[in-house]
Amino acid sequence: MADLAIYLPRPATGVWTWYKQGGDVLAFIAISLSMAIFIGQEQIISRGDVVYWLVVGPSLLMPLLRFRQTLENLLFGKARPIAFFGIVSAVWLMIQRDFGAVPPIFLIVWVAGWACRDEVRISARALLALALIFYGAGCISFLMQPSYEDHPWLMQPLDPPEAAEGSSSELALPEQDRDGLNINAWGILPNQTAVAFQPWRISATPNIATSGIFSLMILLVIVRRFRPNPLEVATAASALYFATLSFVRAVFVSFALFSATIAIMSLLPQRPRLRVAVALFMTIGITILVALSPILLYALQDWSIVSRMFLRGQAGMSVADIYRQMYRPWLWSEHLKLFWSSPYLMGQGSELAVSALKNIINAGQMRSDSVSFLTRMVATYGIPAFGIIIFLIERCYSHAKENDIWGVAVLSVMVWLMMSWGSIFHPSNGMFALAFLFISNGSQVFSCSKACGDEEQRLYKTET
Question: Helix-strand-coil percent breakdown of the chain, rounded to 5?
């Protein structure tokens, strides 16, 4: 594979060079975003379905072209802690004859090791252009789709599921035998949202989390080095529009965390250990604040802006109601309980996936336990899953040592998103690859053109 370029004509050699140096990850993100435009938020994708293979297939096949580099990264490169997690977990699960939990580990390790290769460099302009195309395609798809008014279930408020803590009822899964599952019922303008969902929320895709969190990632790229050219202005305006009006709470918290980390890191001396400690303190601190926030939100819920941004427009809620609506703090607690109760602290294995369909791991939610990636990994795979946490800490230290303030701040945001919107951290999702790319390479992930020279590499780095 390394000698493939020798046998290609010159134009093809250029494409191959682009592909192996980050074009593969960019292409993977593009495929994932294009699929997201046509898959509804209420759609359940079952293993073995045609749609399942269309979604998962690229994550299995695309890394094959860089098989040796991916393997080297996992065994000898920066992804070693992730490989430790995968190998130890897989061995333990096979000893326990729990074969159903092995494929997810393989896919996580496979895609993460591929996405965070040292050779990967992507063009910020190409990523912004891709985002603009994504927004345009999402808007066109919404305008061309059938009206959601033709589907009665979207024109009435959804009843809350019956499952609740302490009950024996199973989790209420969305019905799959109804029309309109794959249409965008959120709208692209305020007040276009279907009655079944919260009013005044917008999305470029049928899944509002995909639209909101991808827009957040694009904004993080833009603020790193904003230049007022037509591409960046148009993309910035679009990303800000869809990120803000999605009213995804994790987006607001993420941007506040990013801004605070940038400000504080700029004031700290260039001491890597101190910066890592501060970054960990801020990330853990924001998690604790979110866990305690129902008390504060209970007192402030009558303020319309608080209700709209953090309580999905609802008011008159009790502290318990707010706690259950936020769901994450409760889920973190349940995951840790499952970890501590697992045999030899090696996790629940595939039992957790089964229990996610029942009350053991839901709080009256339509979805299961996938909204917290890190704690789910710990609950499912136990001690080996701390390899992911070691990887995150090691990369944070590396960015701090290189004085990459943007890299440290973005890593903090990615950790928070892993705790609050883990459903996007499925290895078949392009945002999974983009997140691990940011985490691994920091600001070094962006390629430099001759015009920008060394200026781009020095961005968000202070003089030593």
Answer: 65, 0, 35
Residue 205: count of CB within 10 angstroms of its CB: 27
In a domain, 147, yes or no: no
Q: Positive or negative CA dihedral for 54, 55, 58, 60?
A: negative
Report if residue 189 sits inside a domain: no
Residue 161: inside a domain: no
| Segment 29-56, tens digit of pLDDT | 999 999 999 887 767 677 777 888 888 9
Half-sphere exposure of 116 (CA within 13 A, CB side): 31
Q: Kindly tell me the number of DSSP H helices and DSSP E strands found in the chain.
A: 20, 0
Does residue 396 lie within any of the structural domains? yes
Q: Computed from CA positions of residues 41, 360, 348, 421, in that sequence, does the dihedral angle turn out positive or negative?
A: positive
Domain count, the chain: 1
Report angle CA 371, 361, 386 to the nearest 5 degrees.
60
Helix (H, G, I), strand (E, B) or coil at 179: coil
Contacts with 269 (C-beta within 8 Å, 6 or more apart), sequence order: none
Q: Between residues 323 and 34, which one has the greater pLDDT?
A: 34
The Cα-based distances of 441 to 120, 402, 407 in angstroms read 8, 11, 8
Pair 85, 109: CB distance under 8 Å = yes
Rg (CA), the chain: 22
Residue 442, amino acid: G
Domain limits for position 19: 13-123+248-460
pLDDT digits (tens, 9 = 90+) for 120-161: 999 899 999 999 999 999 999 999 988 877 777 777 766 544
Q: Token match 């020279």: residue? A: 453
Phi, then psi, of 124 in degrees rounded to 5: -60, -40
What is the biggest distance separating any 2 CA atoms in the chain, rounded to whole angstroms?
69
What is the rounded distance in angstroms from the CA atom of residue 104 to the CA atom of residue 427? Answer: 9
